[in-house]
Batch of 2 targets.
Target 1
Amino acid sequence: MREISTDKIIKTVAELCMSANFELGDDVKAALKAAYEKETSPVGRGILEQITENAEIARAESVPMCQDTGYAVLFVEIGQDVKITGGNLREAINEGVRRGYKDGYLRKSILGDPLKRVNTKDNTPALIHFDIVDGDKLKIIIAPKGGGAENMSEVRMLKPSDGAEGVKNFVVERVRKSGGNPCPPVVVGVGIGGTFEGSAILAKKALLRQLGSHHPDPFYAAMEDELLERINKIGSGPQGLGGNTTALGVLIETGPCHIASLPAAVNMQCHAARHKSAVL
Amino acid sequence: MSKEKKHIRTPLTREQARELKAGDNVLITGTMYTARDAAHKKMVEALDRGEKLPFDPAGQVIYYVGPSPTKPGKAIGSAGPTTSYRMDAYAPRMIEAGSCGMLGKGEMGKGVVEAMKKHGAVYFATVGGAAALIARSIKKAEVIAYEDLGAEAVRKMEVENFPAIVAQDAHGGNLYVEGTKKYSKE
Ligand code: SF4
């Protein structure tokens, strides 16, 4: 067994919370630049320019790129030969989030209860997806998720007879209905298969991938390209105010499903496509 | 090249609000008040009870924002817009009470547009997610009401050359609809 201390985990999570919010990924920056070259709407070009400049300011000044510093969503892969010492893993992660959001001057956006709506004031609890894997390492991925784009997401239990066309139409319509609300240009995470909740988790996991990457199956890789093209024909563009850049990418993840079902989920992600990871 | 930018000063008059047209690029200088869902709920409840609002809304632009905490030495934290449709239920009351503008992201609903037409008010969009850039045009910010709401408290802001786009105007002009139509290739 390899030992990993909760102290180390706390420190790592705190740092990831901050760097994820301050530093936009190079893949997103490259996609924004490519989109700018192709954008024909003057308003749209102006918006893309502002988004790129904003990312530079955030990194240089160590301030959050967006004031909505999100729900701290984490994917944690625990090697089965790892032993956590010094305390409870979940608690350590939450303590890391607490410290990161405090030290980074990040916004605290979490309510302890959905209807009573009282802020927990430290952005905890985090939403943590644990997975057990081979090996003696601990991988922590954080993906702070803003409310604006999350609110435009949807799970749909399609009929198996709806097929690929049904899924594609659902995705395009979901983006169309979202308009300017999720701060386009967006990244569209699509989960196909699994169960009701499984499809949603697949869609969220898709958003952890690098922009420009493709599904390993050529069938789905082609679907990603086709969907991106269709979405960018809608014309809603940057911030929904008109243009060719409605999405920077479409990322599909798939999983096995029941003979009676065709679950599909769309997780909308704004251009503040934040995710950072560390391996301990 | 973007269209030339119009400089405007807030507070606005009803006439000035009516002069602005969907698609206008503007730079706003003057005062602004911030409020999101929770503060709007409290303010509309105050109006229902016949009480005064925590600030005089006449001519004011209300910015839908919940900034991140202010770092030492700065006027404000990152401060980009939140999604405006959540204020659809409240905005008509604020317009009726005197407000001449809203500032946020995403399209506002029919009820708001009716109030904008009737009273003379305008809806500005600013770039969602460009929060660190936008913060540079906010020179002063102080909490003036509902401090307990934290990020959602009402703040009075002084802004200089704050970048925005007229998205929906007092004549029914709507850049979300017109812009999408113009660039649609479907
Ligand atoms: S949708 Fe994204 S960019 Fe827009 S306000 Fe929310 S977190 Fe920020």
Note: Chain A touches chain B through 52 residues (CB under 8 Å).
Target 2
Amino acid sequence: MFHIYCPYCEEYREEEEFHPRGQAHLQRPADPENCSDEQWGDYLFFRDNPRGIHHELWVHSVGCRKFFNITRHTANYEILETYKMGERPSITAETLAADERQSGVQTASGGWQTVGARPEDEALNTEARA
Amino acid sequence: MSEIREFDCRPNDQTGAESPLAWSLQRGPVPDADTQAGVTLRESAFMGHLILRGGAIVLDEAVREVLGINLPARPNTLTLDSTGERSIQWLSPDEWLIVVPGGEEFALEKALRHALGQAHFSLVNVSGGQTVITLSGPKARETLKKSTPYDVHPSAFPVGKGVTTIFAKTSVTLRQPKADCWELIVRRSFADYLYRWLLDAAAEFGVSVER
Ligand SMILES: [Zn+2]
């Protein structure tokens, strides 16, 4: 059972009050009429499935009914932070890896991670697929 | 003045009206009123409920002018007027619930619309969709503990707090306007279910229903 901090209610609530709504920070192609089928398909259907840090959209459906973001570790389910819509995460796979290097701990997974969906982080995804 | 058409949802004629708990109180099990009971239930029927949405800064002045109460800006809080009969509760960063004695809501709606003028806001009368069940008595808190995962310990749930949360597998707006008096704002269609749930949950403490 998660105990989730809602950034709008400003307190921890039971997981039952929330619903996950998938990957966060998806960016709709700015000009849908003129983007490629691949770009549109990526936007509609393709989602990251990382082992490690994942930024997710959740909604406090029985509560304030606001959407917000959660940074969660998919391997150990740890919730690292929650933040409001329109804000950027302060913890990402990159910052976590840097912290671990600094404290002399080896990064647990060789997995790659992206902050958002494809149009936003094209380079990272291309790298990972290669 | 906004271009919104206003109409009184509850005109003062002879049209019969039944509260969401009317059926339960007529047909369902109704324990007798008992001053020794651990928990006492009462329906505060036919209150005026308004949902006010907009930016806090825009709404605050109008609300103070019309109702004489501050708009609660802190999450999960509730403010009452000096008589304790009128209240405003924070529901979300841009949404508040106003509860006033039945019959006042139409005049209040008009006054608020007038005070807010062309501001960006929304005001909806939801009186018909929900009702208030009050829970009092020495064992009221124990009954709540059996029904909701929300922490109702005095340190976590002081007087003046109000939250929307899970309650008996459905959702309610739970608040404590004054010491040891709990209000459950429930959806009309869930009222009978919650009434029966509360009777069952409070049975071990001795329960009475005021009508
Ligand atoms: Zn919330």
Note: The domain at 32-210 of chain B is CATH 3.30.1360.120 (Gyrase A; domain 2).
